[in-house]
Every structure is written in structure tokens, then in C-alpha cells.
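Backbone-to-sequence.
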């Protein structure tokens, strides 16, 4: 392997730090900035923006304003090289259909999903020509002034039924909505070498697929849980109860973790995001519980097969198992 120059390593670190800064702090800083400006001679700027935001309130639920220019920034390729992140295709995704991709595991910051599906760092549009990807996240992010503009540009959307249905029914075909189904609860299990997926009671995305006739596609990001070392609190402990309550109130779980440098810089652990084969789903506007359960079980089986088929080529020992809870 060719040794990286110190300059290349520095650029990669800055690129990843930008992602971390956005993930952890940018939303808060945008709110602070708007509040601060309201009490200065520039108060007209936040006033005008907030007025416009109210008028533009429903844009995120209509697919947002994705920008090819922003998704192709060179910074994303440097961030990809840091770990590195690799996108692997195991089957074609036809641009004549729509898809819901379930991505696992969440990890701490979901680097694999972010780099592969919200940017062109791994060349998604070249790997899957004619298919457009969106990554669904908490709807609350789109209420944050300024921050919402940035995340919409890279193809992040609210994980709401209204938004997903819009993309699957009113935006043509060739749309792939990526949902990290385990969400905040799954992040609490993130630890090196651990492959725990929260799935048994997550069936809403399957129902959406049936209602809109979108094929289901399992995705697994090998190495995602190796990017940080988390202090995993035991079940029943006070700390764990605080995490659960915080998740229920705010929507995400506070994790105690550390990285390779400065606590926040992740370990340079390779991440391989493997996109599985589509599961053909019929359109059933009012699916029965039996239908939902059936396709949910098919999805779990496909995800398990995908994991075992690719685990050794992605750096795991043959003895590693996937735990679905």
C-alpha cells in the first residue's frame, strides 16, 4: 500500500473533522448565530430568513433541494480516503423502480451511510447509474435555521411518512431512500467487533415499501462500529436509563465514546458498505399485518445472508455472528 504524504493525511483529517463538526455542533451554532443577530443592528437578516423559512417549511418533505455541486465536493473524497470507505454493489438497481434501503448498523456517526449515500465520495451515481439516493434522518433537524439548507443540499431528508411517500410516488422512478432503521437505539450497542442490529420491532419501513410498491434492499456497513470506542453502559444502570430517557425525549442517544486522537477523531478503520440484492415487493395500498410480517422476515433473512456472505472479505473472522434484537 502506498504511504500517504503528511499533507494528504492532514487534508483527510480536516475533511472528517468537518463532518464531525457538522454532525455534533453546526445545528447548535446556527441557532446561536440567529439569536445573536436578532439583538444586533443586523436583526433584519434573521428576521427575513425566518420569515422565508416559514414559507419554505414543507420543502424538506418534498425531497428538499439536493445539489449535485455540493455532493461532488472534493472534501467528501478525502473523507472517504481517511478510513477508507468503500461502496460495494452486489446486484443492479434498476432506474425504472424505486427502493427503500435499510442500512445497518448505525454506529456512532454513521460514516459509511453518510459518505456513500449523501455524497459522491464513493461514486454512488457511477456505481448505480440512473438511481438517486437520499438519506433519511430526524425531522427535527429541518426546523433548525440555516442548518436545514446545508443538509438538504447533500440529499438528507426527514424520516417521515409524508416525505418518503413523496419520493416514492411523486418524484418519478430511480429513487433510493436510505433509512438507518436501528436509529438512536442501535447506536447504544456500537462497539468494536460488535454486530448488533435493532430490527425485530422495526417494521414501519416494510409497511411503507408495501404501500408504495418500492423494493427493499438490505445494506450492511462492515467496520462502522470500529470507528470509535464506546463506554457501553450495562442494562438497568442509572447511566443507561438516562440514555434511554434522553433518546425518548430528544430523539437521539448521548453516547460516551472516544476516538483515536482528540477524543473526536475516529480510528482509521476501513468501512465497507455492501448493498444487497433487491427484494421485490408488491404494491399493497392497505397491507395486512401478515404481509408486513412476511416481507419483514424476508428482509431479515436477506440481511443475515448478506452479512455472512461478505463478512470475511470485509475483515471479520468467520466466527463473527450478526445479532438481531
Amino acid at each position: 500500500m502506498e504511504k500517504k504524504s503528511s499533507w494528504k493525511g492532514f487534508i483527510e483529517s480536516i475533511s472528517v473533522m468537518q463532518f464531525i463538526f457538522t454532525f455534533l455542533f453546526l445545528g447548535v451554532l446556527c441557532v446561536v448565530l440567529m439569536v445573536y443577530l436578532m439583538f444586533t443592528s443586523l436583526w433584519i437578516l434573521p428576521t427575513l430568513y425566518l420569515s422565508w423559512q416559514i414559507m419554505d417549511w414543507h420543502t424538506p418533505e418534498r425531497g428538499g433541494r439536493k445539489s449535485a455541486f455540493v455532493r461532488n465536493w472534493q472534501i467528501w473524497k478525502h473523507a472517504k480516503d481517511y478510513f477508507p470507505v468503500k461502496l460495494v454493489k452486489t446486484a443492479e438497481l434498476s432506474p425504472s423502480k424505486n427502493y427503500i434501503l435499510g442500512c445497518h448498523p448505525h454506529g456512532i456517526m454513521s460514516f459509511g451511510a453518510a459518505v456513500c449515500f449523501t455524497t459522491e465520495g464513493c461514486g454512488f451515481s457511477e456505481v448505480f447509474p440512473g438511481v438517486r439516493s437520499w438519506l433519511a434522518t430526524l425531522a427535527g433537524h429541518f426546523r433548525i435555521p440555516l442548518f436545514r439548507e446545508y443538509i438538504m443540499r447533500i440529499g438528507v431528508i426527514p424520516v417521515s411518512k409524508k416525505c418518503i411517500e413523496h419520493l416514492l410516488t411523486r418524484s418519478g422512478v430511480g429513487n433510493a431512500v436510505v433509512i438507518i432503521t436501528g436509529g438512536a437505539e442501535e447506536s447504544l450497542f456500537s462497539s468494536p467487533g460488535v454486530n448488533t442490529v435493532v430490527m425485530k420491532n422495526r417494521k414501519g419501513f416494510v409497511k411503507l415499501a408495501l404501500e408504495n410498491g418500492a423494493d427493499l434492499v438490505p445494506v450492511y456497513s462492515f467496520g462502522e462500529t470500529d470507528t470509535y470506542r464506546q463506554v457501553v453502559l450495562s442494562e438497568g444502570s442509572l447511566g443507561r436509563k438516562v440514555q434511554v430517557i434522553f433518546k425518548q425525549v430528544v430523539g437521539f442517544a448521548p453516547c460516551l465514546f472516544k476516538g483515536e486522537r482528540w477524543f473526536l477523531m475516529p480510528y482509521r478503520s476501513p468501512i465497507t458498505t455492501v448493498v444487497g440484492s433487491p427484494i421485490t415487493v408488491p404494491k399493497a395500498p392497505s397491507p395486512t399485518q401478515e404481509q408486513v410480517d412476511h416481507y419483514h422476515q424476508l428482509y431479515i433473512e436477506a440481511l443475515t445472508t448478506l452479512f455472512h456472505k461478505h463478512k470475511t472479505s470485509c475483515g471479520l473472522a468467520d466466527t463473527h455472528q450478526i445479532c438481531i434484537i
